[in-house]
Design goal:
The structure holds 2 protein chains of 2 kinds. Chain A is mainly α. Chain A has one domain: Cytochrome c oxidase, subunit III, four-helix bundle (Four Helix Bundle (Hemerythrin (Met), subunit A)), CATH 1.20.120. In chain A, 67% of the residues lie in helices and 2% in strands. Chain A contains 5 helices and 2 strands, in the order αββαααα. Chain A has a two-stranded antiparallel sheet with strand order 1-2. In chain A, a hairpin with a 6-residue loop joins β1 and β2. In chain A, α2 packs antiparallel against α3, α2 packs antiparallel against α5 and α3 runs antiparallel to α4. Chain A is elongated. Chain A starts with 20 loop residues before the first helix and ends with a helix. Chain B is mainly α. Chain B folds into 3 domains: 470 residues, Up-down Bundle (Cytochrome C Oxidase, Chain A), CATH 1.20.210.10; 68 residues, no CATH class; 47 residues. Chain B is 62% helix and 2% strand. Chain B has 19 helices and 4 strands. In chain B, strands 1-4 form a two-stranded parallel ribbon. A two-stranded antiparallel sheet of chain B has the order 2-3. The longest helix of chain B is centred in the N-terminal third of the chain and has 36 residues. The chains are: A mainly alpha, B mainly alpha. Chains A and B meet through α1 and α4 of A and α5, α6 and β2 of B.
Chain lengths: 212, 656
């Protein structure tokens, strides 16, 4: 009976597929998240056009009792800009990962910071969008559109927030001790998550903003 | 069959606080200890859920029962269903996933040991949260299905459904975390040579169950989140006057709820598929078909949900489609029944307690399955829905199926877990009381239901043709109560005085039985190499497995790289003398095996999570309403800090 030799760090443990455990787990997580966002998006689409009172996403509405008119509430040009920023962040993420893989300590920090900044910018756009909607008279309590819109995009925003915190954590580690090529898996996991959150936004932007 | 040894194996004397006493349980990351925690917790809730059932049956034993009020009755049937599904059968499944999967695939632990501990603690705190309603006199009362809009603030004021909504939210997080963990474990920690088609069938059925968990729970999470936001923050997801669809909840709930049914039954199928071959002394009949039918059940399970909704008027097309898919899912299930029968056919049967429970599952689940096919037809379902016929059906499936399978698994694996066998005589008394009591309790419900007795009523008038049926049901429930006491007595007593099991008391075929009972912390000193589906029978009784595919003669055993070094470790069946001679085992440290460091950080994180939800429920309390946001934010902060402390500390000691 021979003992298995010492191992240092769990990256060197035997795995059946040769992949890091976390790589498999994050794919399972992403699969699960597809059902999560799928349910939220389905609810939005089922409730589309069923709101009894406005404001509505794509058409103006006049309140019959007060005579007050609400314009169509979604601002597609502004959200197109924030969508562009979020899509670019995926490019920065790829560059950050590539920098860590080739051991480029300078550009790994630059691109990680750029990704986090782009994510934060997207969140800033969302905060602006949410507050302006509230000023225009749409809250989660107003109508079915308000409930399903705020909760769907709010959960997406929460995912972006978690991603930004993850990126800042990686950046912090990079400044403290440097991310080596052996740490690429950590950036890879964050990148998979980040791209997934981006893809979800493409679905949300298309289904909710672009298709009227 | 039991090998005669003096005592279960001794391990090195515990010398740190992590190895003995309460701390060893709070800080454990060992899948075997976590499995036991799940097992004990589930048994405790089985007693609570059973007590609720007994009160229900006492109330209904005759016309115009006066034991409990209508309000109390609603709480009892809601919590009976919720407890038995989420706090008994699911954690029983989790207990076996935890204990068995790493052993069956030749691993030393799960892929994420600390996440595993987190899953258990979140489950425990969620279960306590769900039951906390009893303490403040407001247990959930909207049914385990919690149909919105009935459960919105307008129609269910009070804290009752708040406890349910938040409790289920917490329990869902536990199941999701466990699902990711076990999918990764099964894909990535199989021993060399353990191809998918050599995996023990229990691990296979568990694998399918994990996919159901991670794909079904997000849906209920969304449905429950909507209800939570409606109740606490005034959104409109289930507000009919705002234009909401009264069927939204039903669709989301059953889109989760039907896969949930297979989450409850597939682990039990896996357990009896382990038990039947061993006590028939034959390989499982049609192993590949058993695997494929399990996968097919998993797929079809997502396409039948609306058969719970035939009565809401979805129209002939939807009714027909879901009727047909429901009939289709009976095919892979029927395949399993016939394969179990064919496994027993011509075998040398031994009627041990686990075998009796396994056969009990085949008989009783078949009855439940057939009544299920009856109401897969929408016209028949319209007669049966919301009557006691449905109650009879799902108790045959869940008690006759899931619980019988869980009892079979408990008697079968108890010696592996504790080192001692459960008492066979008490076990047989338990089985026969259960079998008789279960049929007395649930079979008459078919007749009461067909005679028109509705579900969820707390009283009924005399002479409607339901009196005898209800009295018999109550006597059946009482017998089940006695049976459960016998089981508990056997479970507790055998821990000290049961016959010592040795490694392989049953003459089983899979690798977990090569380990000492109970296994050492690291499970396998050397990771085995697997060459067939039944390694122990290959070594001990090769004639049993002659027809089972093996590694071909010409195929060299693959040399595997473990920890960076080549190893040629291959599996050898231990001889009986070898089994009997071992009384002490080296520790992981002596063998130089790196095992995860015990830590309470997962427990702290789960407490943070629960405090966060506690803050939310304070929003509806009378006296502490102003505290809700501070408590919620404190919970979030505590959770985040614990999570970072956990993620930034290494899994294993850095130097050893």
């Amino acid at each position: 009976m021979t003992a298995i030799p010492h191992e240092h760090g769990h990256a060197h443990h035997y795995t059946t597929t040769g992949l890091d455990h976390r790589k498999i787990a994050i794919w399972a997580f992403i699969g699960s998240e597809c059902l999560f966002f799928g349910s939220l998006i389905s609810t939005y689409l089922i409730y589309k056009g069923r709101s009894v009172v406005g404001p509505f996403p794509h058409e103006a509405w006049t309140n019959p009792s007060t005579g007050q008119t609400f314009p169509a509430i979604l601002d597609i040009p502004v959200t197109s800009a924030s969508t562009f920023v979020l899509l670019m962040s995926s490019l920065f993420m790829v560059l950050a990962h590539a920098s860590v893989v080739r051991g480029d300590r300078k550009y790994s920090k630059i691109w990680l910071a750029a990704t986090a900044l782009a994510g934060a910018t997207f969140l800033g756009f969302q905060a602006f969008e949410f507050t302006s909607f509230v000023h225009e008279g749409l809250t989660p309590r107003t109508n079915l559109f308000g409930s399903s819109f705020f909760i769907l995009t709010g959960f997406h925003g929460a995912h972006v927030t978690a991603g930004v915190i993850w990126l800042i954590t990686l950046l912090f580690i990079d400044f403290r001790r440097g991310l080596r090529p052996a740490d690429a898996i950590n950036v890879d996991l964050c990148a998979l998550y980040w791209h997934f959150v981006d893809v979800v936004w493409i679905a949300i932007f298309t289904l909710i903003y672009l298709i009227q | 069959m039991a090998t005669t040894v003096a005592a279960p194996p001794r391990y090195a004397v515990p010398h740190t606080k992590y190895e003995r006493g309460l701390w060893s349980w709070l800080a454990t990351v060992d899948h075997k200890k976590i499995g036991q925690l799940y097992l004990y917790t589930a048994i405790a809730f089985f007693l609570i859920g059973g007590l609720e059932a007994l009160i229900i049956r006492e109330q209904l034993k005759g016309p115009n029962g006066q034991l409990v009020s209508a309000e109390m009755y609603n709480q009892l049937f809601t919590m009976h269903g919720t407890t038995m599904i989420f706090l008994v059968i699911m954690p029983m499944g989790a207990a076996f996933f935890n204990y068995l999967i790493p052993l069956q695939i030749g691993a030393r632990d799960v892929a994420f040991p600390r996440l595993n501990a987190f899953s258990y603690w979140v489950f425990l705190l969620g279960a306590l949260f769900m039951n906390a309603g009893w303490i403040v006199g407001a247990a959930p009362d909207g049914g385990w299905f919690a149909y919105a809009p009935l459960t919105t603030q307008q129609f269910s004021p009070g804290l009752n459904m708040d406890f349910w909504v938040i409790g289920l939210q917490i329990l869902g997080l536990s199941s999701l975390a466990a699902g990711f963990n076990f999918i990764t474990t099964i894909i990535n920690l199989r021993a060399p040579g353990m191809h998918f088609m050599r995996m023990p069938i229990f691990t296979w059925m568990s694998f399918v169950t994990q996919f159901l968990l991670v794909l079904a729970f997000p849906i209920i999470t969304v449905a429950v989140t909507f209800l939570m936001l409606d109740r606490f923050f005034g959104t409109n997801f289930y507000t009919i006057t705002a234009g909401a669809d009264p069927l939204l909840w039903q669709h989301l709930f059953w889109l989760f709820g039907h896969p949930e049914v297979y989450i409850l039954i597939l682990p039990a199928f896996g357990l009896v598929s382990e038990v039947l071959p061993v006590f028939s002394r034959k390989p499982l009949f049609g192993y590949p078909v058993m695997v494929y039918s399990g996968i097919l059940i998993g797929f079809l399970g997502f396409g039948v949900w609306a058969h719970h909704m035939f009565a809401v008027g979805m129209g002939p097309i939807a009714d027909s489609v879901f009727g047909v898919t429901t009939m289709l899912i009976a095919i892979p299930t029927g395949v399993k029944i016939f394969n179990w029968l064919a496994t027993m056919h011509g075998g040398s049967l031994r009627f041990t307690t686990p075998m009796l429970f396994a056969i009990g599952l085949i008989a009783l689940f078949t009855i439940g399955g057939i009544s299920g096919i009856m109401h897969s037809s929408p016209p028949a379902d319209l007669q049966q829905t919301d009557t006691y016929f449905i109650v009879a059906h799902f108790h045959y499936v869940l008690f006759g199926g899931s619980m019988m399978g869980i009892f079979a698994g408990t008697y079968f694996f108890y010696p592996k877990i504790t080192g001692r066998l459960m008492d066979e005589r008490l076990g047989k008394i338990h089985f026969w009381l259960t079998f008789v009591g279960m049929n007395l309790a649930f079979f008459p419900m078919h007749f009461a239901g067909l005679n028109g007795m509705p579900r969820r009523i707390y009283q009924y008038q005399a002479n409607q043709g339901w009196d005898i049926e209800n009295l018999v049901s109550t006597w059946g429930a009482r017998i089940l109560g006695v049976a459960t006491l016998v089981f508990i007595w056997n479970f507790v007593k055998s821990r000290r005085s049961g016959a010592v099991a040795g490694r392989d008391p049953w003459g089983a075929a899979t690798i977990e039985w090569t380990l000492p009972s109970p296994p050492p912390e690291y499970n396998y000193a050397v990771i085995p190499t697997i060459t067939s589906r039944y390694p122990l029978w290959d070594a001990k009784s090769p004639e049993l497995t002659a027809d089972v595919p093996h590694t071909p003669e010409g195929e060299k055993r693959t040399d595997v790289s473990v920890g960076g070094k080549e190893t040629h470790a291959s599996f050898k069946g231990p001889s009986d003398t070898h089994m009997a001679s071992e009384v002490a085992h080296p520790s992981a440290k002596e063998l130089g095996i790196a095992m995860p460091t015990p830590t309470i950080k997962p427990l702290l994180a789960s407490i943070g999570l629960t405090v966060m939800f506690l803050g939310l429920i304070l929003k509806h309390s009378v006296n502490y309403q102003s505290l809700w946001l501070p408590v919620l934010l404190a919970g979030v902060a505590f959770f985040v800090v614990s999570l970072y402390a956990w993620l930034l500390s290494p899994l294993e000691p850095e130097h050893h």
